[in-house]
Amino acid sequence: MKLALFSHCAIDTITIDGINHEQIGGAACYSGLTARQFKFDVDLYTKFGRDFPMQYLTQNKIHFEDAISEKLTTRFAIDIKGSDRTLKLLHECDPIEYTTINADGSLVTPIFHEISADVFTKIKKDSSFTLVDPQGFLRRVDSDKNIILENTELDLSDVNAIKVNPDESQKIVSGSHDEMMMALQKKGVEHVIFTNKTEVSLLVKDKVYSITLPNKEVYDTTGIGDIFCATFCCTMLKEKDFLWALCFAGGAAQAALDSKQVGLLKIPQKSAIETNASYFYNLVKYRTI
């Protein structure tokens, strides 16, 4: 099976406990490598500069074309304190250009404005299953280049699944957590995933399915959402079962956190994901909304 992935590669300087770690990343890398764990072929639609080690993608058999830009790769400075993090934009690469998709599904997870509204519309119309992580659509920078979120009008028609946290959803819709999930559903989204730190909920029709990740010590949270999204998308495409997709995605996030690794080293093995998924499957709670 094949996943079309739309996102910029990045080079991140991650600061934890005052120590800097320079890592390649971005949703392109985290999601792409996770999809490869599920034996998916990955067509990556991205842009990066000559400062990016593209051999890392080719070694992992992630396919890309026309990705090299004369600009520097998108770069962030990320400061992590517990489960909280602050981001600063250092460089922004060229936007992603559209080409026709030939894949089983699409994962649209921009990190900073690389996907225009026109390209987003074309992706949705050309894809049979589309999962969106909207964070890069919502991000802006202040005068000091710190990343902030702003209210943004997003066309979510033809979107099969979306993953948001409370801060992100408040920039698209309004209300309580339940009201925001329902408002996103009314915009046309079939599966609304709402992550609130260790609490993960999924709204499908009139029911909310929830799991709780074990509350352990958190180290580097960079890329956890990307690992979650890729796992949910691949499981949905393979199994056509949203409950297993939720449990596998939660299992992948938990396995990545358990690794206590920085950057791409935290991408979990499929065996660890499966073990956690079986654990979560027996603990899913549900309620009618």
Low-confidence stretches: none
Number of helices: 9
The Cα radius of gyration reads 17 Å
CATH homologous superfamily assignment: Ribokinase
Strand elements, count: 16
> What is the total number of structural domains?
1
Q: Which term fits the overall shape?
A: globular
Gross CATH architecture: 3-Layer(aba) Sandwich
Average pLDDT works out at 95
How would you sum up the major sheet?
A: 10 strands, mixed
Task: State the CATH topology.
Answer: UDP-N-acetylmuramoyl-L-alanine:D-glutamate ligase
The helix/strand series, from N terminus to C terminus, equals EEEHEHEEEEHEHEEEHHEEEHHHE
Alpha carbon gap, first and last residue: 34 Å
- What is the helix content? 25-40%
CATH class: Alpha Beta
Order the strands across the largest sheet as they lie in space: 5-4-1-8-9-12-13-14-15-16
Oligomer: single chain
Structural class call reads alpha/beta
